[in-house]
Amino acid sequence: MSRQRSMEKILASEFVSIGELVRLTGSRYSTLKFYTEEGMLPFVQEHENLTRRFPRVEAIAKLNEIKELKQQGLSIPEIKARMGA
Amino acid sequence: MKELRFAQNFSLIALNAQDSLHLTTTKKVSLRCMAAAAILEIYLDNGFSRTGEILSFTKQDLGHSSMPSYQEKVLKTLLGKKEVISGTLSHYLTKVLRLSKGHLKEMEQAFAASLEEAQAIEEIPALLGCDLEFVTAGISMKEYRSHPELYTRLIESLRAEILEEGTMTDEAILMLWLLRESSCLYDLFSREELKRVAVQIQQLLEDSALAKQILPITIHKFIETAYKNFLKIKRDVMSTPTGSGLNFIFPVLERSQSIFIETEEIFPNKKDRLRDLKVRIEEKGHDFTVIREGEVPLVKIDNVLYEAVPSATPYYQVAVHGVRLRKYPLSL
After folding, report:
1. CATH number of the domain encompassing residue A55
2. Has residue A2 been placed in a domain?
3. Residue range B37-44: average pLDDT?
């Protein structure tokens, strides 16, 4: 059985799945998927089942940075350039 | 905010935008699935006594202080006058098909109370009340609205887990089944994404013991569906082991409503039309957000996306101009 992790456990984990990152940040799945594909979010990919795991603290910090830059009116290419992605 | 339990999470999706005053067909389907969700929650928490595949529950097991009221309500109904019930998980789940209207109403109250206590759901004037016919007739209706942030987090994390590569959790597998049985799947995924969901179901049937046990079970009544006969023919032609094909593309149950909202001017331009729509919706107490402008704007009303299609409808031999709200999948 593979059970869903409680929020407490997620908050104590070094790595989280994209679904857990959605639960933590309230961002849309398609948005996170887009940022991941654009190389704006850090992740590690396990070879066996191809599941992407995101370093929790770093990924949330990056997301907050992206949100802040978007609020300043920057476009995605500009944000990417600013973040050095 | 307190973390919701499995059945509460499903209820948040199933009850959102449902008529809170009347027992509609779609709500009956939702309530049966919510009862099934409560059974699955007990199963996940090892609340049944197990002997192999047989799950048992006795009257003495009821009334624990830790047992949520909605779980107690469902189990009491299943027990009836019996002291003990035993059967496979499938046996328990298919029992929800025999729940009476009275039982369903009692269950709705128990679920709604638990969600209201968690501040996860509220009752608001129904969107259908903004429809020209309803406004003119002076009919007021009420519906449930799930907490927008909780709702978004829940459906987006589910979408992520179902659409992503990799192992799905037991909760996600069971939620996928409940969404399929309640026809909520079509609110959450676009038609393109449903193809991916069908592949995922096929994969689960090969890899997951829980999915093999759950996914073949059906707890919806075709008699309650508008497409009953149409789908019967299609099912015979297109049925697959996963229930995909046309059955998967077309919802078993159409949950959307046709809502027409008239505009103030006869030939409004797109800006005036959108402004009038916003005023009408907001004055009835709904949250209104414009997602995309244009000839056919995309708007979010409460937790649901709609395309506002310019339209006209005959009313006492006069063409009334306005917009018709067309439901849009939440997969934007």
Report:
1. 1.10.1660.10
2. no
3. 96
**B254 CA: distance to closest CA in chain A (Å):** 25
Give the pLDDT confidence of B284-313 residue by residue, as tens digits.
889 999 999 888 899 999 888 888 888 888
Nearest CA in chain A to B148: A26
The tokens of B263 are what? 């505009």
Judged by CB atoms closer than 8 Å, whether chains meet at B161 and A27 is answered as: no
- As annotated, the residues of chain B forming the CATH 1.10.3630 domain(s) are 6-249
Contact yes or no for A4 and B166 at CB 8 A = no
A40 is a domain residue: yes
Dump pLDDT digits (tens) for A23-72. 999 999 999 999 999 999 999 987 666 788 999 999 999 999 999 999 99
Range list of H helices, A12-75? 18-25, 29-37, 56-71
Which burial class, exposed, middle or buried, applies to B175 when counting CB atoms under 10 A from its CB (0-12, 13-18, 19+)?
buried
Tally of domains in chain A: 1
Of B44, B158, B166, the CB nearest to A49: B166
Residue B188 has pLDDT above 70, yes or no: yes
Residue-wise pLDDT tens digits, B269-287: 888 888 888 988 898 889 9
Q: Is B153 on the interface with A (CB under 8 A)?
A: yes
In Å, how far is B229's CA from the nearest CA of chain A? 36
CB contact under 8 A, A22 and B168: no
Q: Is the ipTM of this complex over 0.90?
A: yes
Subunit contact B160:A18, Cβ cutoff 8 A: yes
What 3-state class would DSSP assign to B275?
helix
Of the candidates B156, B161, B165, the beta carbon closest to that of A28 is on B156
> Mutation test of the interface with chain B: which of A5, A23, A34, choosing the one with the most B Cβ atoms within 10 A?
A23
Domain, as residue range, for A78: 7-83
Q: Is residue A1 part of a domain?
A: no
Binning pLDDT at 50, 70 and 90, where does residue A85 land? low
Q: Is B313 helix (H, G, I), strand (E, B) or coil?
A: strand
Listed in sequence order, the residues at least 6 apart from B189 whose beta carbon sits closer than 8 Å to its beta carbon are: B159, B162, B163, B197, B329, B331
Min CA distance, A20 vs chain B (Å)? 7
Q: Which residues of A touch B41 (CB under 8 A)?
A: none
Which two structure tokens, joined as six digits, stand for B246?
């046309």
CATH architecture observed for domain B6-249: Orthogonal Bundle (1.10)
Spatial contact of B180 and B219, defined as CB atoms under 8 Å apart: no
